[in-house]
Amino acid sequence: MKSNRNKGLTSMEIRWILYDVGNSAFILLATTILPIYFNYLAENSGVSSVDYLASWGYAASISTLAVAFIGPVFGALADTKGFKKPVFAVCVLSGVFCCGLLAIPQSWLVFLILFILAKIAYSSSLVFYDSMLGDITTRERMDGISSHGFAWGYIGSCIPFVISLIFVLFYESIGIRLRSAMAAAIVIHAVWWLAAALPLLRSYKQIYYSEGERGAVKQSLERLKNTIGEIRKNKKILLFLLAYFFYIDGVYTIIEMATAYGSALGLNTSGLLLALLVTQIVAFPFALLFGKASRRISSAVLIRFCIGAYFCIALYAVFLRYQYQFWILAICVGMFQGAIQALSRSYFAKIIPPQRSGEYFGIFDICGKGASFLGTGLMGIFAQVTENSSYGVAVLAVMFAAGFILFGKAAGKQDGSCKNTTDYFEK
Questions:
Q1: Contact status, residue 156 vs residue 284, Cβ threshold 8 Å
Q2: Helix axes 357-367, 323-350, angle to 10 degrees
Q3: How far is residue 393's CA from residue 254's CA, in Å, rounded to a whole number?
Q4: Considering only CA atoms, which of 318, 209, 300 is closest in space to residue 254?
Q5: Buried (b) or exposed (e) across 100-139, using 16+ Cβ within 10 A?
Q6: CB distance 351 to 230 below 8 Å
Q7: Do 227 and 359 touch, CB atoms closer than 8 A?
Q8: Dihedral in degrees, nearest 10, Cα atoms 118, 241, 129, 334
């Protein structure tokens, strides 16, 4: 068992990790360059900085709320034999297509609609991608492989981002307009996303599944209903999902709104982009470090440590006013961003039945990316009501505190969940 845990990556694990490199590039684009481009479009249309921040927050909320509804249905359908790969492919191709369309000059409203569609497709693809973890590796390697995914995703996404920065930061020297520079950045990321997805799309094979019969959609919805009922009875899984809802909401809100928040405070655009590039670079070694630490320290202990760190980060962000403070924030976020996502994903994968991973990860996505509508929405509301962009950040600290308490209760539950899951893997 020990040698299996420490052996090198298999070809299937590498292909799975590679998709993290692709989709991470899109989310880096969506959280750095796109908000700045949207700010440019909005300012040209006379939209105020407060309304700009609120509109971007509402767009993020709409996209994640949509995934909260369609994710579980897609996940349940994907558990049927022969469905996971093709539906995953549709989500990826739709996301790449909508991302590419963002490069075409348009009004700020059309841009926002296309962003919402691309974000929905991206988030939907992750329902299937996360649920593939049990198919591509063994249970004892899940923490490490999940950490590798986020780690290489962060560092790999820097490649198209750095190339894009050349266009975005030096467009005048190159002799092109800002719109053209942004269009080039968008196209580069769309192509990167597609190229990184192709190896997994070609070679993935579903190992754990439910047998497909006539009326697959209806049966999937029935299985989803049963799964929700089982989760309500399984206190360990239920408490974990509640905890995850709160703490990961804060994580994704910080990821989604960091650039928009910095722009609203009037910080230098170039400095924001470079600081967030540092976040990606810092996240790479720390995600791997936490993955290795999980061999000796319980992943539950590591997750609680990360939640506590994020609580401190949220409090610090409330008082952020200067560029150097944003750089400190970016470094601190990078230290824990990949770790908390990777360990949460693998922790959940180990306490659920693998042949129904699509159903469970569909619900997992509601409590994760689908839940981040709350944080982004509250930031938008507080910014508009108080006319101060900083007050919304304080809400995130409360969410991290709630997540910390609930996760402690979940980790302390010994109801046989993990043992039952081990039995599934051994069959």
A1: no
A2: 150
A3: 9
A4: 318
A5: bbbbeeeebeebbebbbbbbbbbbbbbbbbbbbbbbbbeb
A6: no
A7: yes
A8: 70
The closest alpha carbon to 141, from 32, 17, 237, belongs to 17
With contact defined as beta carbons under 8 Å apart, do 246 and 406 qualify?
A: yes
Torsion angles phi and psi, residue 387, rounded to 5 = 60, 30
Per-residue model confidence as pLDDT tens digits over 56-94: 878 877 887 787 777 777 777 777 777 788 989 999 999
Q: Calculate the alpha carbon distances from 258 to 214, 253, 271 in Å.
A: 47, 8, 12
C-alpha closest to that of 260 among 317, 338, 337, 184:
317
End-to-end Cα distance, the chain: 17
CATH of 8-206+218-426, one of 3.20.20.220, 1.20.1250.20, 3.40.50.80, 2.60.40.10: 1.20.1250.20
Q: What are the tens digits of pLDDT across the range 228-260? A: 788 888 888 899 999 998 898 888 888 766 766
Contact between 57 and 377 under an 8 Å Cβ cutoff? The reply is yes
DSSP secondary structure, 111-153, as one string: HHHHHHHHHHHHHHHHHHHHHTHHHHS-GGGHHHHHHHHHHHH
How many Å apart are CA 63 and CA 29, to the nearest integer? 16
Task: Find out whether 340 and 307 touch, Cβ atoms under 8 Å.
Answer: yes
**Per-residue pLDDT at 41:** 85
